[in-house]
Design goal:
The chain is mainly α. The chain has helices at 3-22, 52-55, 59-78, 86-100, 104-123, 125-138, and strands at residues 27-31, 45-48, 147-148. The chain has one domain: Peptidase M41 (Methane Monooxygenase Hydroxylase, Chain G, domain 1, Up-down Bundle), CATH 1.20.58.760. The chain contains six helices and three strands, in the order H-E-E-H-H-H-H-H-E. It has a three-stranded antiparallel β-sheet with strand order 2-1-3, covered by helices on one side.
């Protein structure tokens, strides 16, 4: 992984983590490898403590979790960049919406609300400041172990 690719991956993953923090979601791990990928296609990873079962029939938690999914890609778009992991994030947000809703119509509405919330969140000054601070931390020399925050 080139230095530029690592920086982009770190910003993408930092954006997921900042969204989780702002929305009060429990963050498990943020990981950006110093080289290569984490296996498969993933260049980085941000994981919250929530499982799909935790979100079942809980539209409030599911919407917040879907916002976290969207945040990485939307933060990249705000910089005029694209990221290869955005398709996975979109898929995950849709999956979260389905688990958190009682019907297909509710899942679509939840998904759409989460998209709008994520865009507003990413555009906020607080979000951008925190994402840049976390990016600096993730890119510090010698930082090769995952950042893990457990509540």
């Amino acid at each position: 992984m080139t230095t530029d690719a690592r920086a982009l991956t770190a910003y993408h993953e930092a954006s997921h983590a900042v969204a989780a923090f702002i929305l009060g979601r429990d963050l498990y791990m943020v990981e950006v490898p110093t080289s290569g990928s984490l296996g498969g296609k993933a260049a980085g990873r941000c994981t919250t403590m929530a499982t799909l079962r935790d979100l079942q029939d809980d539209p409030i938690a599911a919407e917040a979790e879907a916002v976290v999914c969207f945040a990485g890609g939307f933060a990249m778009e705000a910089l005029g960049l694209t990221a290869s992991g955005t398709g996975h994030d979109e898929h995950k947000a849709a999956e979260v919406a389905v688990w958190g809703a009682k019907s297909a119509d509710d899942a679509i509405a939840l998904h759409d609300r989460a998209r709008r919330r994520a865009r507003r969140l990413v555009d906020s000054e607080r979000f951008q400041d925190l994402a840049l601070r976390l990016l600096e931390y993730l890119l510090e020399p010698g930082h090769s172990r995952p950042l893990s925050v457990r509540g």
